[in-house]
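Q: What would this chain look like folded?
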Amino acid sequence: MESKPLTVGNVFLKESIQAFKSMKTNGDKAIAQLTDDELHWLPDPESNNVCIIVKHMYGNMLSRFTDFLTADGEKPDRNRDEEFIARQEDKEQLTSMWEQGWAAVFRALEELTEDDLLKTVYIRNEPHTVIQAIQRQVSHYGYHIGQIVFLAKMIKSSEWQTLSIPKGGSRQFNEQMMKRE
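A: My prediction, written as structure tokens:
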């Protein structure tokens, strides 16, 4: 694979893809710990469960990243309100949506070049540079991944398998990191 020159644009694209991959990994690991029933658990009637959040992200990802440079990011066939209706999708269906959504994100980002970054794209007819549109989605998806992880931690409680440094493990982790060459 050919290495791209070290430019601000190429670094931005690489780091954006890496940020999305990191988010996806955290979501993958949180969702993997939940059963079908747990994916539908609601802390209260006004909240969203993990299933609803994933459906919303899926709808958003397909809408924003399909024909990213050439079509408005809010596609006319998207039914955003439907994404927030509780259904009984099972884990297999949910995982399929999750993977399809992320595939759309990565496909679009990997096709971009640094020459695309200052082009104008639209979301609900509002102009954004490609950089702004990507940053908008980094923020949006990070917000929802945080919700998924928080809900999963609430559900699993003492059975939760941490996604980062375990409580009380910072000193040991830092010492290991300092020993790396």
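The mean pLDDT is 95.
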